[in-house]
Structure formats: C-alpha cells, structure tokens
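Notebook, p. 212. Picked up where the previous page left off. The plan for this session was modest: take the two constructs that came back from the sequencing core last week, fold each one, and keep the raw output in the notebook itself so nobody has to go hunting through shared drives later. Recording the first one now, exactly as returned: residue sequence, then the structure token string.
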Amino acid sequence: MTTVTQMKCACEACLCVVTLSEALEKDGKYFCSGPCANGHPDGSGCGHTGCECN
C-alpha cells in the first residue's frame, strides 16, 4: 500500500505541489499558502517561485 504524502495545491490556478504534513487544510482540501486557502481575497498570489496564481 502506498501512502500519499504530496499533492497539488487545491487552488485550481496554482501549480504548487504541497507536502500534506506542511499544507494548510481547509474544508478537507490542502493548500500551499494562506492566499490559496482563502481564495485570494486581495488578489495576491502564493508567492512561490514560478507560480502566478491569484
């Protein structure tokens, strides 16, 4: 049996892959950052290199 330890950030526009132990969980979904978890309320992205979500 394989245990999943990483998955893509649940934000659709985000390219980040998150380690579940470090991810922010909200409503059963895993996010790489606060802006992604909160739906980018102020238009800011996650700030990770190479990712342009917002």
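Okay, moving on. Second construct, recorded in the same format:
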Amino acid sequence: MRFFALLALAAAAATASPVSPVSNVVVAPPITAPAGGAVWPVLSKQLVEWDTSYIPAEAQNYTGSVLLGHRIPGSDSENLDLYNPLATGFRLTDGEVEVVTPVVPPDNAYFVVLVGDSADRSLDFTITAA
C-alpha cells in the first residue's frame, strides 16, 4: 500500500508545472553616498544616493528601503536595524532619498544598505553626537 501511495505522489510531482519566478531581474544599484569616511551628526538630514544606470527598464517601478547597519569592530559581524528603516517606499529610479540620522552611539563603523529586490552596502561612515 505504501508503495502505491509513493508511486502516486511521484507521478503527481512529475506532471506538476514548475514554479516560475515573478521576475528574473535583480536590481542592486551601487551606493555612491555616503562615501567612506563621511560623518553624519545625530539628527541631521543626509542623502543616501545610488547609481541608477544599472536599473533595467522592466524594474522602473521597483521600490526600496534604506537600513542602517553597524559593523562590530574587530570582527566580521554586521548588524542591520531591520525594525527602524531610515526610509521606505521610494522608487529605486529616484537615485537618492533623504534620511534623518538616528540617535545611536557615536562610532565610525556604520553603513547603510539599499534594499530593493536585492541589496547593496555602502562603505563605512561615522555617526557623531549632535
């Protein structure tokens, strides 16, 4: 009996249609600002910028988010603040979005990540006290 159940399951799997991805387009525009070594004072307005020349026509309506990350000095660990995005819902074709530097401890190991359907990471920059 188990053999026939397995045989029926295998036959059903063999005739099932393959799952197709929604899109084969992967968009991960390179971040151009903040540049490495940039300094963002807490609560200041800053621009996150990226190169839009890598965005294909079929991805013109994609939207994105910007997340703040922190590299743990002396290790390979990186942490992203997934719960408090710096910006959301903007079009990737905009090429820039204004953010407000959050209140975080001063350090020179911060970075931002631009998330669309893929992600790109900026170089490290510094956040200072207000």
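Notes on construct two before I forget. Residues 1-22 have pLDDT under 50 and may be disordered.
Flagging for discussion at group meeting.
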